[in-house]
Amino acid sequence: MNIPLIQPPQVEWASGALAKGPLLRKSTRIQDLTGIFVDETARRRLSGEHVVYDVEILATSPAEGELYTGVTHLYPGRVGSEFFMTRGHFHARREQGEVYFGLRGNGLLLLQNEQGQARLESVFVGSIHIIPGFTAHRLINTGSEVLSALAVWPGVAGHDYAALTKGFTLRVVEENQQIQVKAVQNG
Ligand code: PA5
Ligand code: NI
């Protein structure tokens, strides 16, 4: 029997680069992140075109039971004293979880439940993050190199950005050359 051997997509672990698959790419720039960082004046002083993070996703089916795979490359930098971070979201289907794997760089994964209780996990090469359902998530790059993380999530999960209008209750800033975590009232 001549069974064709399927060549699957692949990830280069060291860089997080995806290859050999139909890929979707999205860049998120300073100009897309209005109201996300605490210091809006500092954000406006930066070039709007500056890319904060790139996401590459294997274009698979969003049907029930299917999984998406993607890599986020979050660049180093700050808006004012606050480290570059992703917008952050709940899943539209709140019960759906996700797994993140640290591939490159150093940072934090900020997790927050629907009651506003937040926690932080260290992200590093080889770290595994089980994000349960009903939990908003945001990556923060506290290092000086690119933070790359692989993610796998259900195709039906969806993204709900609007539910976080009050923001996350923790902010991560650099003060006196140290990484500091600040609690805020309403993000
Ligand atoms: O599915 C995920 O959680 C990730 O792929 C994120 O979408 C990615 O990190 C970008 O973050 P956000 O969607 O919050 O802009
Ligand atoms: Ni997600």
Summarize the entry for a quick read:
By secondary structure, the chain is mostly beta strands. It contains 1 helix and 15 strands.
Structural class: mainly beta
Say which molecules are bound, naming each kind only once: 5-phosphoarabinonic acid, nickel (II) ion
Count of helices? 1
Number of strands: 15
Biggest sheet strand order reads 3-4-5-13-8-11
Main pleated-sheet profile: 6 strands, antiparallel
Distance between the termini: 61 Å
The unreliable regions are none
Mean pLDDT: 95
Proportion of β residues? 35-45%
Kindly state the percentage of residues in helix: under 10%
| Shape call | globular
Q: Measured on Cα atoms, how large is the radius of gyration?
A: 17 Å
* N to C succession of SSEs: EEEHEEEEEEEEEEEE
What does this structure look like?
The protein has 187 residues and is mainly β. 3% of the residues lie in helices and 45% in strands. It contains 1 helix and 15 strands, in the order E-E-E-H-E-E-E-E-E-E-E-E-E-E-E-E. The strands form 5 sheets. The chain has a 6-stranded antiparallel sheet, with no helix packed on it. The protein has a 3-stranded antiparallel sheet with strand order 10-9-12, with no helix packed on it. The chain has a two-stranded antiparallel ribbon with strand order 1-2. A hairpin with a 4-residue loop joins strand 9 (107-113) and strand 10. The longest helix is centred in the first third of the chain and has 6 residues, at 40-45. 28% of the residues are buried. The model has no long low-confidence stretch (mean pLDDT 95). It binds 5-phosphoarabinonic acid (PA5) and nickel (II) ion (NI). 5-phosphoarabinonic acid (PA5) is lined by residues 28, 55, 70, 72, 86-89, 98, 137, 139, 151, 153, 159. 5-phosphoarabinonic acid binds next to strand 5, strand 12 and strand 13.
